[in-house]
From TrEMBL:
InterPro entries to which the protein is assigned, alphabetical: Beta-mannosidase-like_N2, Galactose-bd-like_sf, Ulvan_degrading_GH
Name of a matching Pfam family: Glyco_hydro_106
Beta-mannosidase-like galactose-binding domain span: 752-840
GO terms for MF: hydrolase activity, hydrolyzing O-glycosyl compounds
Keywords, in A-Z order: Hydrolase
UniProt-recorded name of the protein: Glycoside hydrolase family 2 sugar binding protein
NCBIfam families according to UniProt: rhamnoside_JR (NF045579)
Protein's organism: Runella slithyformis (strain ATCC 29530 / DSM 19594 / LMG 11500 / NCIMB 11436 / LSU 4)
Length: 874
């Protein structure tokens, strides 16, 4: 780890905060001219180039459509090709490939789209220029001697011109030699992508490098082979810790840092996925300009009405976890990095089955975990003349132009842009630092191949949640304490006065602790930082070398900490866990007690004023008074979904600020405390926090509305879609149109429901009335009496009806519903399965079996439940 760089990052703001550009600028990063800085508030997308079989004409056509849909940029990833088009494939980094890249970047500038690229094809780094001396290695113990042998791992999903061995992540000369190929390719290129990208680690079985014995002895003070028996003994931890520590240092210095330094020297910023590696993720993420996490699968939120694909195998692939995401956002918060990105919604559901209503909760989870630069996973380059469904990547989700939600895609993108405009232009407001005791993890026996701990985002239960660190972090997350993680190295450079926010460091129960960390905690306590040890003090210092002598000094240092209160994990799991709550609040840590009701949040500061992003990802809360941990005289609620702002009822109880919040299951909002309404908004987002939409005084408390089911005869007409339009029908009871007939069961497209109704007695058009559409599959465009009311695409499917839109008699309601493409693909895959024509893995389902939609049952489509008017009594 470059400690000078780390120290500078704490004292120097490394990013420019240009309105709505949000591009990171490190002290050693390249300067990017203002006119070429892309829009990062808008979401970006992974863009797979299949075989790099691309043309300038189709690149332009797709980029123009991306810009119209509201994207901010693309990330080019060359992968395997299309069967039958081998001759059209363009070799990676060839002059023709660089011409396609240059055309993309220039067109991106014209359209306001940024362009990133992977430093390689597929994943992980590797290729034809990786010779055996540069390739990934593992140790082999033969005849009493440790030998270095090749893992023989090849690049996964490699594109033409990118196949070859995987790079050794621990060797000192591997990265410098590897990037020479890129030096040559970019030697005469003037138009550069914004960023170079490094995908998640995925170097399997690699646990050694040729110079490892020398590096180990230099760093740890003894010969590893002399203690090989202790290293192999599962009951002996100290040598195993030293081994992992050495791997982690080599990975950071020889791989992450050298790749980052090279990227910056060439004029690129870096996006880095450190997860999956055997290093300390906090230190690795810190090296990049834009740390990037990953959201793979469905989080299984208990949101009312949220559908989860039951074919997804949780035991096999795990689920997204906000604590894993915080490993990327925490170093960004510590170092002042403006952007934290995410590879988002990978395998959220099977192909052709992902809805916008499933996507939004996953993005909300990312926002609450500190992520503010969304990359969709993703979009496949597909020629304009390709037959439906076009070219597809083997994994869902499909954000391309053939996606069933393409025409409503701009609605999702506007929501993301509004959120990220605020999140990127505000600073974290966390009180607490939680120390990550990685040495306790290294002391345990690893289950991964190669006998090393791979800190992946998929199965956090294997490493994060099983530690006391994970348990206490989960408790903090669920009980409303705002925190970031910190590593040993980061503690050494943490300056409380410079940060101005973190008041306490919490040390989870740990056995092994570096002496330098214990000494630094003592220094921080003298600076006024509260240090809390959970359960007990550390038992001994890390490392095998001179352990007895060092342990004696360590125990003397511990004596200064004895006598304090050590809250235990049993306190957290008991009926009355107030012990730790009292301890933390007595340390002046703010607790948002309403988080216990399933409301997830991130607290930030903008222009000196506190704001919250809150997502209701449970069913325990709907509305009520919540107590804010920060005092305020007025609180404005901003709804990024509708772009409307209102003032909330506020009262002071016991000296604390309470607001009356209505936030139904699945909804999200921002709260601004004592800020001028519209403060911090960006002109690029239409009407963000529009002052004209804000009441000058807080409204009276809402009263339970009157629910009025809409009854009568519905007419259902099929407007557009595949394979053909079923006949119109009339319905007295709503339900899935897929059950009406065989043709309706195969239909994918848009159908219109129409109903004429009268207002019941006692209800007037002047009242506040909401249309509750119930269970919608999947998106509903609503028109009432000739006026467009809005589009319901996320949970809950509700739309406010503007005042005086309803009439006493003969109201005409039109609801156009668009369903998934899954039902049509049942027929398409049975009749014409030849669309699956891709090399290597081709197309697989969510269980990684050969894809076959013909065996699916029809997916429910249309309006599935009663449509209701809710009339407020105010």
């Amino acid at each position: 780890m470059n400690r000078l760089f780390f120290a500078l990052c704490f004292s120097i703001s490394i990013y420019s905060f240009t309105q709505n550009t949000a591009t990171p600028r490190s002290v050693s990063a390249p300067t990017i001219s203002k006119q070429t800085v892309p829009n990062t508030a808008k979401p970006w997308t992974f863009w797979w180039w299949m075989g790099s079989t691309v043309t300038e004409k189709d690149i332009t056509w797709q980029l123009e459509n991306f810009a119209k849909a509201g994207l901010g940029g693309v990330h080019i990833i060359p992968i395997y090709g299309v069967k039958g088009l081998e001759k059209e494939a363009i070799p990676y980094l060839s002059p023709q490939w660089m011409q396609m890249l240059t055309h993309t970047i220039r067109e991106g500038k014209r359209l306001g789209l940024g362009v990133d690229m992977t430093t390689g094809t597929g994943w992980p780094f590797g290729g034809p220029n990786v010779t055996p001396d540069m390739a990934a290695k593992k140790w082999q113990y033969t005849n009493g001697k440790v030998e270095s042998v090749l893992t023989k791992q090849a690049v996964k999903r490699a594109a033409p011109g990118g196949a070859g061995l995987v790079l050794d992540p621990f060797a000192s000369e591997a990265v410098p030699k590897y990037v020479q190929r890129f030096d040559s390719a970019f030697a005469t290129v003037k138009d550069l992508p914004r960023a170079m990208y490094n995908d998640s680690y995925e170097v399997y079985g690699a646990n050694w490098t040729d110079d490892f014995p020398n590096e180990f002895k230099k760093r740890r003070g003894y010969d590893l082979q002399s203690q090989w028996a202790a290293f192999m003994d599962t009951a002996q931890a100290l040598v195993r810790i030293d081994y992992h520590q050495t791997l982690a240092e080599l990975l950071a210095e020889n791989y992450a840092k050298k790749w980052t330094d090279w990227s910056r020297q060439k004029g690129f910023v870096t996006r880095y996925q450190a997860h999956g590696s055997p290093g300390n993720l906090l230190d690795l993420y810190a090296l990049s300009d834009i740390p990037e996490t990953e959201s793979f699968g469905s989080s299984r939120f208990p949101i009312k009405g949220l559908r989860v694909d039951d074919q997804y195998e949780v035991d096999r692939y795990g689920t997204p976890n906000p604590l894993a995401m915080k490993f990327a956002s925490s170093p960004a918060h510590l170092l002042g990095k403006k952007l934290v990105s995410s590879e988002s919604t990978t395998w959220l559901a099977n192909h052709f089955k992902v809805s916008l209503s499933q996507i939004k909760p996953q993005l909300d989870e990312l926002f609450t975990a500190g992520i503010n630069h969304i990359f969709y996973h993703g979009t496949t380059y597909s020629p304009k003349n390709a037959d439906y469904p076009g070219w597809l990547f083997y994994a869902s989700t499909n954000y391309g132009m053939n996606s069933h939600f393409w025409k409503h895609y701009p609605l999702l993108n506007r929501y993301v842009e509004r959120c990220q405009t605020i999140l990127q232009n505000s600073q974290p407001d966390n009180d607490l630092l939680v120390y990550f005791p990685i040495h306790d993890l290294w002391a345990t026996q690893a289950r991964a191949g190669g006998g090393i701990h791979l800190l992946e985002v998929h199965h956090v239960d294997k490493w994060l949640l099983k530690l006391p660190f994970g348990k206490v972090s989960e408790w903090l997350w669920n009980n409303g304490f705002a925190f970031d993680f910190i590593s040993d190295d980061q503690l050494q450079h943490f300056q409380p006065e410079a940060s101005g926010k973190y008041k306490t460091v919490l040390i989870p129960a740990t056995t092994y602790l570096p002496e330098t960390t214990l000494a630094r905690l003592g220094e921080l306590q003298k600076m006024g930082v509260r240090v809390i040890f959970m359960e007990h003090l550390p038992k001994q210092p890390t490392g095998f070398y001179r352990q007895k002598e060092r342990n004696e000094a360590f125990q003397k240092m511990l004596q200064t900490w004895s006598g304090q209160n050590f809250p235990s994990l049993q306190d957290l799991e008991s009926i009355k866990p107030q012990g730790l709550e009292i301890l933390l609040t007595s340390a002046n840590l703010r607790q948002e007690t309403w988080a216990k009701e399933g409301l997830k949040y991130i607290r930030k500061v903008q222009n000196g004023k506190v704001l919250y992003f809150i997502a209701n990802q449970d069913q325990r809360f709907s509305e009520g008074w919540i107590t804010l941990a920060t005092s305020a005289k007025k609180v404005a609620l901003y709804q990024p979904l509708t772009d409307k702002t209102t003032l909330l009822p506020v009262k002071i109880e016991g000296g604390k600020t309470q607001v009356y919040l209505t936030l139904r299951s699945g909804e999200s909002c921002f709260l601004r405390l004592d800020a001028n309404v519209g403060e911090g908004s960006a002109p690029a987002v239409q009407n963000l926090a529009d002052v004209k939409n804000v009441k000058n005084t807080a409204p009276p408390l809402p009263v339970s509305p009157q629910a009025i089911p809409l009854q009568g005869t519905w007419k259902l007409e099929f407007l557009e879609g595949k394979p053909y339009l079923p006949k119109p029908v009339t319905l007295t009871q709503l339900g899935s149109w897929a059950s009406l007939s065989d043709s309706a069961g195969y239909f994918s497209g848009t159908a219109r429901y129409s109903l004429t109704f009268d207002l019941p007695k006692g209800v007037t058009s002047a009242q506040k009335i909401t249309l509750d559409l119930g269970d919608v599959r999947e998106v509903a465009d609503v028109t009432l009496n000739g006026k467009k009311i809005g589009t319901a695409w996320s949970l809950p499917f509700r739309l406010d009806i503007p005042a005086n839109t309803l009439k006493t008699k003969q109201n005409r309601l039109l609801i156009e519903v668009t369903n998934l493409s899954a039902n049509y693909m049942r027929l398409r895959d049975a009749q014409q399965p030849e669309w699956k024509k891709f090399q290597e893995i081709n197309v697989v389902d969510i269980q990684y079996k050969p894809f076959n939609a013909a065996k699916w049952s029809p997916m429910p489509s249309g309006l599935l439940s009663t449509v209701t008017l809710e009339a407020s009594k105010n």
